[in-house]
Amino acid sequence: MKKFTTFLMAIVSILALTFASGCASNSETESKPYRSIAEIKKSGELIIGVFSDKAPFGYIDKNGNYRGYDIYFAERLAKDLGVKPKYISLEPANRTEYAKTGKVDIILANFTVTKERAEQVDFALPYMKVAIGVVSPKNQNITSVEQLKGKKLIVAKGTTAETYFTENHPEIELLKFDQYAETYSALLDKRGDAFSTDNTEVLAWAMKNPEYKVGITHLGKDEVIAPAVQKGNKELLDYINNEIKESAKENFFHKDYEETLAPVYGSSVNPDDLVIEGGKL
């Protein structure tokens, strides 16, 4: 009996070690080293993390194609490398993780530069300016932060709007969702009183939904949006920065604006209030 017990204990130990080893292997595969430009070219694909539900910046059109301001730039980056773009759809909260772990080569998902994010990923030069805005129904329009007290404010997890209200206005109740599509559904279903995200986004959405209005157009400090890569990937970072600098010669991002954002904003927005050329503010 004693020998049998010893035998069982040995089997259990082996199984435990095997399980632990398997977990370690799985953990290691979660993060992988960044790809060199030579490896990207050899694969024929530049893997880019984008939004699929944030029109007009990153979305899938009725034909199943990715479109938007970020996508226009992504297409250019891939083309100049001589490869095809491979898009990976992201949620606001997992953008940092996908760049940090090397699941994508580049993040082009309306990614606002913050100190906290810059500690985990490397940002390239900026290509757009942004601040925080708040949209709500016209008949109960929110025009000041004070009016949000006692109400529910919808935000997407992992956004600068979530961070801003959490840090500066903890008295305001936040209703949080993973995806942008969920946030707008919650606003339309009246599960919340208002929705906050980048002012560029809520302005565009309100123009397509005339029963809603952006009552707060600018909160917090002005921020910039930029591409991001895995920490230490200087080769790819330098490539992106050079593309941004060189593109200024042809006013590339103003062309991008005219193609993707002007049809939405019309004459209500001055392109120079949003667009950054050559990475220079």
Question: In CATH terms, what is the architecture of the largest domain?
Answer: 3-Layer(aba) Sandwich
Beginning-to-end CA distance, first to last residue? 79 Å
Overall number of structural domains = 2
Q: How is the largest sheet built, in terms of strand order?
A: 10-9-11-8-12
Structural class: alpha/beta
The pLDDT mean sits at 91
How would you characterize the largest beta sheet?
Answer: 5 strands, mixed
- How big a fraction of the residues is strand? 15-25%
CATH level 1 class label of the largest domain: Alpha Beta
Pattern of helices and strands: HHEEEEHEHEHEEEHEHEHEEHHH
Total count of helical runs of at least 4 residues: 11
How would you describe this structure to a colleague?
With 281 residues, this protein is an alpha/beta fold. It folds into 2 domains: 37-127 and 226-267, 3-Layer(aba) Sandwich (D-Maltodextrin-Binding Protein, domain 2), CATH 3.40.190.10; 131-222, 3-Layer(aba) Sandwich (D-Maltodextrin-Binding Protein, domain 2), CATH 3.40.190.10. It is built from 11 helices and 13 strands. It has a 5-stranded mixed sheet, with helices on both faces. The protein has a 3-stranded parallel sheet with strand order 5-1-6. The longest helix is centred in the first third of the chain and has 29 residues, at 2-30. It is globular, with a radius of gyration of 22 Å. 39% of the residues are buried. The model is unreliable at 2-8 and 12-29 (pLDDT under 50).
